[in-house]
Design a protein that fits this description.
With about 475 residues, this protein is of the alpha+beta class. Residues about 60-100 and about 250-260 have low confidence and may be disordered. About 25% of the residues are buried. It contains 21 helices and 10 strands. Strand 9 and strand 10 form a beta hairpin. The chain folds into 3 domains: about 15-100 and about 260-400, no CATH class; about 105-250, no CATH class; about 400-470, Arc Repressor Mutant, subunit A (Orthogonal Bundle), CATH 1.10.10.
């Protein structure tokens, strides 16, 4: 039996302006510039060229207007739209973080200097493309032979693949192309100038890697007839090696050299924090005079073609109006959110001391600004701020909180910093266990459970006590 019911349902529908604003809020400043360029290319109504001068030297546009003043019924009073929150200098100086040359690009460049046949070069290039982000080759040679045949139509054998892998293992950074940590360390040691401590280090890694991994130092000393000083010297060589050679070169942003441009700049002068949003190369947007004239000319006309042209221009002008208004709303939303973060963490931003970083979650800033948590999340994502003590992603300033022994809430970042200090100051001959770290943290005024210590230790990349043991 089919049953029908009649009811009312309230459903909120986002306007084009709201959708546009949400999309723009998510973009960091560099992607925003690209988005504006794309809009300029696709919407002929928008124009970022300076207004033309008339014969008397005046701007063609007599006064600044908002696109909101333009509608179908009213004449167009001006052809220029000026967004008021742009500075005078379209390209002020700004600081950036340069991302290093791509890992793959670096290896391919080195491959180009080798005297190889075209076939050998193709095999080597395939191997380079098979390396993981740490610079290791995690695949066996037979699998590579099969992949070369099926995916690249290159006939080869495991001997040739091994030969080309050996060539790649001679490239910089040292250790690249290794198939495991042991081989990675050996590749680096074999490239060093020969000294007794390098020779001892190579023997330890080559012959007693398991004992080395498990910190069985006395057993290694007995096997190799080394005294404590010789063992320390050899270990000093090993611990300075790079276990992740691919990590020296960044593959961010799809293997292209990029820059991180801060969306915000925070200056601290005379005890005051001053937050700004430099405009960089974001253009000033106006209504294109030619298309505005077309709309005026077609207004009230009964000719079909002119009406169609007017409809087209009107649609483009509506789109331009939404886009520019969305840019304004993005600016105001980002600035309000960042100012709320600065106000919340004022003590931290004055000196950059991590211990002054208060516990803060998205909800805290949402309550201060009146924005939704989802909006705060979009603002925080992929945005950076330049301060007088460094450039940081906005996510850096958010952390959960726990109570100390006085009942005061402290940030997890502060707890991690204290935990790191405890490990840094421990006796490396007898590293602190997690239970002992709980006691040590308690002595410093922080009540933290053992499982929390283990979690934070993992997040900080601190090994278990047994693996931190040194001579």
């Amino acid at each position: 039996m089919i049953k029908q019911e009649l009811g009312l349902k309230q459903q909120q529908k986002l306007s084009p302006l709201q959708i546009q604003t949400i999309k723009l809020i998510e973009l960091p400043v560099q992607e925003l510039e690209q988005r504006i360029r794309k809009e300029l290319e696709e919407n002929p109504v928008l124009d970022d060229n300076p207004p033309e001068k008339s014969e008397d030297g005046e701007d063609d546009a007599p006064r600044d207007v908002s696109l909101s003043e333009i509608n179908e019924d009213d004449p167009i009073p001006s052809y220029r739209l000026k967004v008021n929150n742009y500075g005078k200098d379209e390209r002020p100086q700004y600081n950036t973080f340069s991302v290093k040359q791509s890992f793959t690009q670096s290896l391919m460049e080195q491959l180009g200097f080798r005297n190889l046949t075209e076939h050998q070069r193709s095999v080597a290039a395939f191997i380079i493309g098979s390396l993981d982000e740490d610079g290791y080759l995690r695949r066996d040679l037979e699998s590579l032979v099969d992949d070369l045949a099926f995916r690249a139509n290159i006939e080869t054998d495991s001997e040739e693949v091994a030969s080309m892998l050996k060539v790649i293992q001679e490239f910089e950074p040292a250790g690249v192309g290794a198939r495991d940590l042991r081989e990675c360390l050996l590749l680096q040691l074999r490239g060093m100038r020969r000294t007794p401590d390098v020779d001892n280090a190579e023997r330890i890694v080559s012959e007693y890697f398991n004992e080395f991994s498990n910190r069985h130092f006395q057993k290694i000393m007995n096997k190799l007839s080394l005294d404590e000083e010789q063992m320390k010297a050899a270990m000093g060589r090993i611990v300075r090696l790079n276990p992740s050679p691919g990590g020296q070169v960044d593959d961010s942003y799809n293997d292209q050299a990029q820059q991180i441009v801060p969306d915000f700049v925070l200056n601290y002068e005379d005890g005051e924090l001053n937050l700004t949003m430099p405009r960089f190369s974001i253009p000033e947007l106006r209504v294109n005079k030619k298309y505005a004239d077309l709309l005026l000319e077609a207004a009230g006309s009964s000719e079909r073609q002119k009406k169609e042209a007017a409809t087209f221009v009107k649609q483009k002008m509506d789109s331009a109006k939404w886009f520019v208004e969305a840019l304004k709303q993005r600016h105001n939303t980002l600035l309000s959110t960042m100012q709320a973060i600065v106000d919340y963490q004022r003590e931290y931003f004055t000196d950059g001391d991590e211990s002054n970083l208060k516990p803060m979650v998205l909800k805290d800033i949402a309550e201060k600004t009146g924005f939704d948590i989802s909006t705060i999340s979009r603002v925080v994502n992929s945005k950076y701020i330049e301060t007088h003590f460094g450039i940081f992603p906005l996510k850096y300033f958010f952390s959960e909180g726990l109570e100390n022994q006085e009942g005061e809430e402290v940030s997890t970042r502060e707890l991690k910093k204290v935990l790191q200090e405890c490990v840094d100051n421990e006796d490396k001959r007898k590293p602190l266990t997690d239970d002992q770290l709980v006691t040590e943290m308690s002595n410093r005024g922080y009540k933290v459970a053992r499982r929390t210590i283990a979690k934070y230790r993992d997040q900080l990349g601190i090994a278990k006590a047994r693996l931190r043991k040194e001579l």
